[in-house]
What we know:
The structure holds two protein chains of two kinds.
Chain A: H1 23-35, E1 37-39, H2 40-47, H3 51-63, E2 67-74, E3 77-84, H4 86-110
Antiparallel strand pairs in A: 1-3, 2-3
Chain B: H1 12-30, H2 33-54, E1 55-59, E2 65-69, H3 70-97, H4 105-128, H5 141-149, H6 152-167, H7 170-186, H8 199-229
Helix pairs in contact in B: 2-3, 2-8, 3-4, 4-6, 6-7, 7-8
Transmembrane segments (chain B): 32-53, 73-92, 104-129, 141-163, 170-190, 202-225
Organism (chain B): Micromonospora andamanensis
Protein name (chain B): DUF998 domain-containing protein
Amino acid sequence: xxxxxxxxxxxxxxxxxxxxxxxxxxxxxxxxxxxxxxxxxxxxxxxxxxxxxxxxxxxxxxxxxxxxxxxxxxxxxxxxxxxxxxxxxxxxxxxxxxxxxxxxxxxxxxxxxxx
Amino acid sequence: xxxxxxxxxxxxxxxxxxxxxxxxxxxxxxxxxxxxxxxxxxxxxxxxxxxxxxxxxxxxxxxxxxxxxxxxxxxxxxxxxxxxxxxxxxxxxxxxxxxxxxxxxxxxxxxxxxxxxxxxxxxxxxxxxxxxxxxxxxxxxxxxxxxxxxxxxxxxxxxxxxxxxxxxxxxxxxxxxxxxxxxxxxxxxxxxxxxxxxxxxxxxxxxxxxxxxxxxxxxxxxxxxxxxxx
Lengths: 115, 230
């Protein structure tokens, strides 16, 4: 191959965002996207994490501006609600798109005529 | 660069499969389909006596009878608005108790809009037909279908289709298509059913009873499916 690389030829894995391309953080974004608003306890149960571990992942996503966290009370019980930001929504969509491309690329290169 | 450079934790197939599984779980946890169907079944069954006693029937010397379903007009708009409000509140509370947001608002809005459409159509018909004759008999099929579509029982089905779409609930979608086919194509919601000696009141009550029972069976079925899933 000669000349400047065509952007469409770029391997999908090169565009993966380290913040999003991680099982737990992608799970948080997926749940929050579907639920619109999700409580800390629900995330902890679904993702099978300790509170400390989940907090670390939430901090990474919040610092990247992908989620918003809102603390409040329900009765005497403290509750933290998580919502997806517009940037988080875009990041999730792009990540899922890249994962699909990556799988398609692997399947294409895996067929006998390409070997 | 190949997929081998992506960590095992970032295996694309596993990640996508996890995303799909989590999304599906959230949708299941947000649903209270049985409750929506139970509320609508209750409203339908409670509406039968309102139609029965609110109906004015005038029989002519030639043996034919004219009837006006005032009970439907007075009962259903308020009942449907109350039903959609109840369903929306219960959905939001149930989802919140599970730590989730809810997607029910567009359904409640669709329900309110269909209620306004049905009420406007019935009021227009009540004002228009006393002073204008019906078109030539027999009425065309599309006329009967439109008449059935503009009943509260069909409007319930239209709103349920929206709920099925919002919840991405295939089972509810299939149930609703069956329900709408029953209400629009099978049950004579607007001209009665049964042997002549039953009279017009009983003839119009039977299709409503069947509709209420179908919704009730749907509620039982979805509740049982939810229990089994848990």
